[in-house]
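Example 3.2
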Amino acid sequence: MSQAIKETKTTSCSDENCPVHGTLSTRGTTLIGKVVSDKMHKTVVVQIDYLHHFPKFMRYGKRKSKFHAHNPPCIEASKGDTVRIVECRPLSKTVSFVVVEKKGGV
């Protein structure tokens, strides 16, 4: 996690799986998507929309993927927010990403 993001966060939290205030390290993929569900405890579902190329027809088609991401209490992303998620170690069976920044919302 970059030092600039750590310095901009002022709200503290006691979550050990927070990349800013806890000990969770991040690595690998960084994605930006929209939160489509926040019904789980400290977890959100983020949808990533992208274009897939079909070379045979020389066209693009819309695709989407959903990722489960840990939602630390200091960020508290809700449904409709645009967030940045970063890959981390597996936190559960389905959660391998963590929300590091809230870009905007509804």
